[in-house]
Amino acid sequence: MATDVATPSGSWLSRTFDRTAATLAFGLGLAAILGALGSQYIGGLYPCELCLEQRLAYYWGLPLLGAVLVLWHRLPRTVWYLAMLLALLIFAWGTYLAVYHAGVEWGFWPGPTACSGTGVAVSFEQLSDINAARVVPCDKVQWTLFGLSLAGYNAIVSFGIVGLLAAAMYGRWRRGGRTPA
Question: Does the pTM of the predicted model rise above 0.90?
């Protein structure tokens, strides 16, 4: 009788799927935030209030995800799951903000009064340095590609990151929480 010499945790791909998915999520997020910063500082697109809020998910989620990737084999299982869940929730929040912003741009719902609509009354004393302030409206699209604005692309990217993080967590859970040697 021949014995099967396959490892109990399956093939190489199934053993590394969770880390690969998390690494892809990190790379996708890093490319997205670098693209946003590049469009601002190189491309001359000024972010509105909602654009800046959407970036917070990357500013908080990427360092957390980076720490998980660096400490991948050293984190206790519970800490790993909590950190991954927190990163997933941060990017889910970012997905919500991006969908909300895209909806404001398409006119599906009103945006915040600070950057769309009429806002509040301004007195003449406050107008002394009016050229110093640049208010970018949240309900006006500055750039599109194939009919999608940057907020629309951010919604897709953020949703992809959430999916990759969920897949990484599922992959680890399916293997019983074991990390490959």
Answer: no
Phi-psi region of 88 (alpha: psi -120 to 50; beta: other; left: phi over 0): alpha
Q: Is the CA virtual torsion 148, 150, 151, 157 positive or negative?
A: positive
pLDDT, mean over the chain: 80
Q: pLDDT tens digit string along 52-92?
A: 899 999 999 999 999 999 998 898 989 999 999 999 999 99
34 Rama class: left (phi>0) / alpha (psi -120 to 50) / beta: alpha
* Token representation of residue 156: 């897709």
Pair 80, 114: CB distance under 8 Å? no
Contacts of 134 (CB under 8 A, 6+ apart): 46
* 51/66 Cα distance (integer angstroms): 23
Distances (CA, A) of 21 to 5, 61, 166: 27, 15, 9
How far is the C-alpha of 50 from the C-alpha of 55, rounded, in Å? 9
